[in-house]
Structure formats: C-alpha cells, structure tokens
Amino acid sequence: MRTTVVRPHRSDEPFPREEHLAQRIAELATDPVPIDDDVAEMVVNRVIDNAAVATASLSRAPVVAARGQAEAHPAAPGATVFGIGGRYSPEWAAWANGTAVRELDFHDTFLAAEYSHPGDNIPPILAVAQHAGSDGAALLRGIVTGYEVQIDLARAISLHAHKIDHVAHLGPSAAAGIGTLLGLPAETIYQAVGQALHTTTATRQSRKGEISTWKASAPAFAGKAAIEAVDRAIRGQTSPAPIWEGEDGVIAQLLDGPDARYEVALPAAGESKRAILASFTKEHSAEYQAQAWIDLARRLRSEHAELLEPGAVRRIVLHTSHHTHVVIGSGAGDPQKYDPTASRETLDHSVPYIFAVALQDGRWDHVASYAPERAGRPDTVALWRSITTAEDPEWTRRYHSLDPAEQAFGGRAEIELADGGTVVAEIAVADAHPLGARPFARADYVRKFRTLADGVLDPAEIDRFLDVAERLPSLRPDELAGLTVTARDLPAAPKGLF
C-alpha cells in the first residue's frame, strides 16, 4: 500500500498537485491492474445482496417517492430503476435505486475509524454503466474502485467524531468508481472527486433523535451528486482544491482542524484492489452493530429458557464499544430509542429494542420485528426499558483494531435476574461475519435474495435476475440492463413538483 500523509496546508504553502489526496485517488482509479478472482466473486455477491434488499423495500414510502422522481426523468439510452420498466436519466435512476438499497439498512458494511455501507457505490456506478453502454468487465472494475476508495477513507479519516455524515466518503468513492468505469483521465477524475466531496458533506442529524426517511436517501443523494460531479468534470469544469487539505477545506474546517494529520493507505500502482473483501454483509435487517447482539440474543433464548418467564429479568447491561454505546445504545441520550411509537428508522438504531425483541422471539424479521404492534407489546416494553449499554474500553479497542482476527463488533451481556441469579455471555462478531459461526457465501446471498423477493417478484423474474447477476463479469453491454428487477402491483408514487 502507498501511504499518503493528509493534512491541511496554508494557502501560501507549496503543495504540489501530485501530493493531493484527490490526485492519489485519481491515480488509483486509472490504474489498469487486473481484478482478482475472489474480488470479482464478491462483487457479484454484493450486487445480488443490493438487489435483495432493494426488492424488499419497493413498496416503502421513501422508495416509492424516489422512484416517482426518477419516472419524471425518462432518458435514452438511460438507466434502469428497480421495480419498473423503462430507462431514466442515470443520476435519477441512481437516486431511486440508492434509496431502495439503503431503506431497510440491510446490505453490506465496513467499520473502522469511520463506518460505511460500501454497497452504496453500486447504484450510481451501475446506472452510469447502463447509460454509457459499458460491459460487465468495465462495471466490475468501477465497483472495485468504489469499494476500495470508500473503505480506505473509512480506515483513516473519522467523520462521525465531528458529526459529519459518513456519506462524505461515498461521494468521492462513487466519483472515482465512475471514473474507472468510463476510463476517464486522472485530471477529470481529480476534479470529479473534489466536486463530489464538496457537495456531499452534511451533518449527522439525519441519524440522531427521531430518525427520518432521509436516512435512506442520504447515500442515494451522494451517488446522484457523484454522477453530476463526473458530468461537470467531463465538460471541463473544475472543483475547489485542495478539497481535503485546503486552508478552508474539509479537514481544517469540518474535521480535526488545521493541525490534523491522517495517513491514508491506498493500493500502489500495480497492486490489487482488495478492500471489498474486508467488508461484511448483514443477515438481519438492523444497524450492523446490532447484528452480533441479535445472534447472541437468539443463542441465549435457546440456552436459558428461564429468561422468557414474565418478570424473570431485572435488568440487562450490554458492555460494548464506545461507538455502539453512543450510536445505537443508551449512550446516545436519545429518549426515542426507548419509545414504542418511534419510527422504524429509530428502532433500527436502538440496540436495547433489538436485543429485547430478538431475545423474546428468537428471530429477526425485516417487517414483523419493527411492526407497531410488536414494538408496543407491554412485556416487550418492560424488558426493553430494563436494557442499557455501557462502554467497555476493551471492546472499544477491539472495535478499532486493524487486525481482522481481533476486530470485534459485539460485546458482553450481563443479565441480572429477579431471583438474584445472573447470566453472562459474550459475542465478538455476527454469525454471518467472515470469522463468525456461519460466514456468508454465494449460496447465502442467493437465499437472501430469494427470501426477500418472494411475493414481490414472479419466480421467473427471480431466476432471470440471478442468472444475469452471476454472469456479471462477462456481460455484454446489451445485457447490463438485466441487472434490475420488474415487480408487480407496486404503489403509485405521490405527486411532487415534477
């Protein structure tokens, strides 16, 4: 890996273009290094994964609204939109598809200094590929770049510590991935990366308190902005520079300030791009840091039947990392995380709620587990409100470990029983994690798609999509339009401005 020291520079300080982080990303995006076979296989897995969760969300309000906006922008050649036929302007197709992919918070994740859902790169890169008449091999290269850039940025630069939303890493990564896809020169990609970052920095209020429908739309907006940035750059338009390192740039003014210093490691010239293999998908429709807790709750339910007796539990403390404690735990200070009338988006970010329901039900369903009647059950509310989280320095250290064998996203549950007894159990990673009890493989991704598409797509459409997706690296340009699905009986979109 090639390490770039990234720090703010005064306007009067010499800072040659070749040292800019945006330039290093542009060089990575133009490197024609071959794609490793295991990386190509994982790209196919994640395209299937994205389609699975997008299909399951096609009738949800944010997705219906975004789809309606895309339908107002037909285009030729254009790109496809999940759920419907026709072709649409690529930035609006990416907007609709990106919202569908993120709505259920059910696709892949990467956690480090910053957290991310790198599968969010796929909708904008795919939309441009379909519009531009690219083939599967070019799409594959573009997606690999998108994953590489977002994950490498997430390893090095924390955004959430400064209450900046994580999509600020997605705008640049999607722009770089589109640059690779189209074979653009480094100069054009440099400008596109800068514009994409400049237009996608926003606060984390979208993931705080009463979480709104914008949570699903934020990464879709970043993907749309990335496409528009690439379009402007191709037309010769330039961007604020140096966008990260400038005196009034992102780092100096929004992140760690003028004295900040980061080390961003990117693949060197000729080095394989393999970051996608460090990411992991979700078995359950919940925020990633809740995945392991769902698995632990299911295990405790099967091993300790006494926990299900009415009034048996006095209190539960989940000892975990700082990040889990303050984002989805009681450390957030959000009363909404204990409110049975809270939105699905809020419950998805409440590990006390998730642990309570998983313990009682022994399962997690992307619809039933969030239903208002499920959240409002008196016995659930009582158990839920007995659960708190606490930061444990060791789990925080493991969360940030760079050693994959040590990195952990779980914790230790200490359950105090009404009769004075205790139950203690811990889990490091989710069962579906590469180091978990049941690591996800191709068959699991296919099963996830079939399960989530059941009742939404016709069986023949399910089989057709899987056939196309599994041939992604060798698809002809005319076959790329097959990387979508057409559903039945979808609700009509509400009327808007256009």
From TrEMBL:
It comes from the Bacteria. The keyword Transcription does not apply. It holds the Pfam family MmgE_PrpD_N. InterPro entries: MmgE/PrpD_sf, MmgE/PrpD_sf_1, MmgE/PrpD_sf_2, MmgE_PrpD, MmgE_PrpD_C, MmgE_PrpD_N. Its EC number is 4.2.1.79. Residues 19-262 form the MmgE/PrpD N-terminal domain. The keyword Lyase applies. Residues 284-470 form the MmgE/PrpD C-terminal domain. One of its GO terms (molecular function) is 2-methylcitrate dehydratase activity. SUPFAM superfamilies: 2-methylcitrate dehydratase PrpD. It catalyses: (2S,3S)-2-methylcitrate = 2-methyl-cis-aconitate + H2O. Keywords: Lyase. Belongs to the PrpD family. Monomer. PANTHER family: 2-METHYLCITRATE DEHYDRATASE (PTHR16943:SF8), 2-METHYLCITRATE DEHYDRATASE-RELATED (PTHR16943). This is 2-methylcitrate dehydratase. It comes from Amnibacterium kyonggiense.
